[in-house]
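User: For this week's homework, look closely at the record that follows, marking any run of repeated tokens, and judge whether sequence predicts the tokens.
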Amino acid sequence: MSLYSHIEEVLWTQYQILDRVTQVASQITRDFNSVHDPPLFVGVATGALFFFSDLIRRIQLPLSVDLVRAQSYSSDTLCNGAPSISLDLKLTLRANTSFW
């Protein structure tokens, strides 16, 4: 049994995804090139970690990084409603230079 045998259809290849992440990072770099304070990027530790790390590595600016951990599953796979924050920010958010 292959690791990917359960996948019926690939919508985007890893190369297509990486190309788009690079485009987004380039746009962020252009948009915030003249901002005085380094922007703060906040990622969700369990949900978007790999996307987040790929993105911030490609941004060609000084930046700050922080993570939150949010969960909406109490046990097993049952959703308990609104997500709760189990790991909160350590850095201070600034309205004009923070990204989620």
